[in-house]
Design a protein that fits this description.
With 198 residues, the protein is mainly alpha-helical. It is built from nine helices and no strands.
Length: 198
């Protein structure tokens, strides 16, 4: 947001060029629905690349097999007994970059406040229910969590958000953001969705 306002104050005539050429540079409230759709399509492609990388890393010698991440019980167990491995401060730089890209952020330093906000929003969404949300609100909420919405209807998005909330709003287990992204990426890489596989 700061770079946007800097350009707005110093070089306002460049703003129309930036809005057209770099829609990710400006706040989403300044974008048309076509620009947002284009941005989310690009995010989906990046997420698929990241997901393939996480699946390959896990399969090529990680401590866990990719298919283990398919169940919520396994992800909760890892969160309960090995959360330190998924804390932002312990993740390698390339993993942090991938996590940032996964949720649509440009810099890893913003992951902590982003996930603090998501934690509060998750609790509110769980309390009020997803049925109270409009289609647009569902899509924005999903994209903020790294759930691609391109080509999905509202019901499919709700199912994925319910899966997310089942893991993040759990009074017994605090879910590390890094684990949530990695588990979501592995599930997406294996099945195209973060929905639990039993």
């Amino acid at each position: 947001m700061v770079p946007f306002f800097t350009v707005l104050l110093i070089l306002p005539e460049a703003l129309p060029f930036l809005i057209v050429s770099r829609p990710d540079f400006v706040p989403s409230t300044c974008l048309s629905s076509n620009q947002i759709e284009k941005m989310w399509t690009g995010s989906k492609e990046k997420r698929l690349e990241i997901a393939a990388g996480f699946v390959k890393s896990c399969a090529d010698g990680g401590n866990f097999r990719p298919e283990q991440f398919g169940t919520n019980d396994f992800v909760r167990m890892v969160a309960q007994y090995q959360p330190q491995h998924f804390d932002w401060s312990h993740l390698p730089l390339d993993t942090l970059r991938n996590c940032s890209t996964w949720v649509g952020l440009k810099r890893g330093s913003r992951l902590v406040p982003h996930f603090d906000f998501l934690g509060k929003e998750d609790a509110l969404m769980k309390a009020e229910g997803l049925d109270a949300m409009t289609d647009g609100e569902l899509r924005v909420a999903a994209e903020a969590r790294g759930i691609s919405t391109i080509g999905k209807d509202s019901e499919a998005i709700k199912v994925e958000l319910e899966t997310w909330l089942a893991l993040t709003v759990d009074p017994e287990v605090k879910m590390p953001g890094g684990l949530m992204i990695i588990a979501s990426a592995i599930r997406t890489g294996m099945s195209g969705s973060i929905v639990e596989r039993l």
